Amino acid sequence: MLPKFLIADNSQEAPGKLYVVHAEEPRFILEGSDEDFSEDQEIHWIDEPEENELELARLVSAAVEFLEQELVSQEDLYDEDFED
Questions:
Q1: Cα–Cα distance measured from residue 55 to residue 39, given in angstroms and rounded to the nearest whole number
Q2: Mind giving me the DSSP string for the chain?
Q3: In the chain, where are the structural domains located?
Q4: pLDDT 10s digit of each residue in the chain, 84 long?
Q5: How far is CA 17 from CA 28, 34, 40, 42, in A?
Q6: Nearest-angstrom CA–CA distance, 29 and 34
Q7: What is the value of pTM for the model shown?
Q8: Terminal alpha carbon distance of the chain
């Protein structure tokens, strides 16, 4: 079973961008700035676009929340490594 969200980047082709991939239907890739992910967000649909505005807002919010939690977890992990 795949995770619901994945983090991706392509620093050589698209420096300054981060991507969150929603791996469940409707599948999409949410693109944003690595400095402020909410800046210049763009949705790249893999499946048919979500037409329901409320559902779309919920999906985007869940993707952003996932990214924020993962980045905090990553920071905590690196902090623990440097404390040793």
A1: 21
A2: ---SEEEE--TTTSTTEEEEEE-SSSPEEEEEESS-TTTT-EEEESSSPP--HHHHHHHHHHHHHHHHHHHHHHHHHHHHHHH-
A3: 5-83
A4: 889 999 999 989 999 999 999 999 999 999 999 999 988 899 999 999 999 999 999 999 999 999 999 999 988 777 766 665
A5: 16, 5, 10, 11
A6: 15
A7: 0.86
A8: 34
